[in-house]
Amino acid sequence: MRVITGSARGKRLKELPGLDTRPTTDRVKEGLFSAIQFDIEGRRVLDLFAGTGQLGIEALSRGAAFCDFVDAAPAAMKVVRENVRACGLADRAAFHQKDYAAFLTGAGGKYGLIFLDPPYASGALERALERIAEIDIVAGNGIIVCESPAERLLPELPAPYEKGRDYRYGKIKLTLYRRSV
Predict the structure, then answer these.
(1) Integer CA distances (angstroms), 86 to 34, 62, 156, 158, in order
(2) N or C, where is the chain less crowded by C-beta within 10 Å?
(3) Interatomic CA distance for residues 126 and 41, integer angstroms
(4) CA-CA distance, 134 to 158, in Å (whole number)?
(5) Phi, psi dihedrals of residue 56, rounded to the nearest 5°
């Protein structure tokens, strides 16, 4: 697993041992960042189920202003911290070892880009989406990127959020939501 492009291009990232974390595949990550490539520069990013931190790191490497990395698992946060430091991006990152719902409850400010890639069977994706829309922490023209199994139908969100298109990569699907101004 490597950073694709930007200031940390080519840096190898550490992975978590075992099967508890499912890193986004390189093919999916390349497709994702191709779809949002003009929507990263200068944005505040939230990597809500950080795992290894690879999505937030890729955004920082491509010019995002700042990233909050959130994961409840101590082992995951240790790996995220190590990966961010190894890429020289720690000055633009904050680390939060806590449950996603607890983080969202206390979240301050707006995000221009939010990554949601929780464990597939947990039901956390839908709950996180609903909570994000409810507390309205997405900046105008901001994007929420969701990774899910290809067969999962994700919900519509109330205005000003619009569900965009799906991108399918075998058994994996990316769904983008946008917040209008």
Answers:
(1) 24, 16, 38, 40
(2) C
(3) 27
(4) 9
(5) -65, -40
- Residues 131-142: what's their mean pLDDT? 96
Q: Write the CATH number for 126.
A: 3.40.50.150
In degrees and rounded to multiples of 5, residue 114 shows phi and psi of: -125, 130
Q: CA 32 to CA 81: how far, in whole Å?
A: 23
Cβ neighbourhood burial of 31 (10 Å; 0-12, 13-18, 19+): middle
What integer pLDDT is reported at residue 108 of this predicted model? 85
pTM of the model as a whole: 0.95
Residue 11 falls inside a structural domain: no
What's the confidence (pLDDT) of residue 54?
96
**3-state helix, strand and coil shares in percent for the chain, rounded to the nearest 5:** 30, 30, 40
Query: Which residues are CB-neighbours of 156 under 8 A, at least 6 positions away?
Result: 163
Residue 140, class by beta-carbon neighbours within 10 Å (0-12 exposed, 13-18 middle, 19+ buried)? exposed
Q: Is residue 155 part of a domain?
A: yes
In the chain, the amino acid numbered 82 is E
pLDDT single digits (tens) 2-13: 999 999 999 999
Q: Which domain holds residue 160?
A: 26-179
